[in-house]
Amino acid sequence: MLSAHFSAIPVSDCASSMASDAKRFAHFFHALLKHGIYLPPSAYEAWFVSAMHSDEDIERTVAAAHLVLPQVAAMPAK
User: Fold this and answer.
1) Burial of 25 (C-beta count, 10 Å sphere; 0-12/13-18/19+)
2) Residue 1 located in a structural domain
3) pLDDT per residue over 11-31, tens digit each?
4) C-alpha to C-alpha distances, 71 to 14, 29, 76, nearest whole angstrom
5) Structural domain total, the chain
6) Domain for residue 62, yes or no?
7) N or C: which end of the chain has fewer CB within 10 A?
8) Which pTM does this prediction carry?
């Protein structure tokens, strides 16, 4: 289980999670979706990796994230 937050501070509780950049997460979500990767649509939801995910599934997800993260990083701060 994991989740992704775009924040300048460590995310360790509800308050720090809610302070993260929701617009950046939305951009990340939609950009990955264009690459065929469907994540939970909210930063407040956990991603689940299971035995049903193949190595290829995970490699494809990582490759797509590598493509879109520079776009997310280039967005103006909230």
Assistant:
1) buried
2) no
3) 999 999 999 999 999 999 999
4) 26, 12, 10
5) 1
6) yes
7) N
8) 0.87
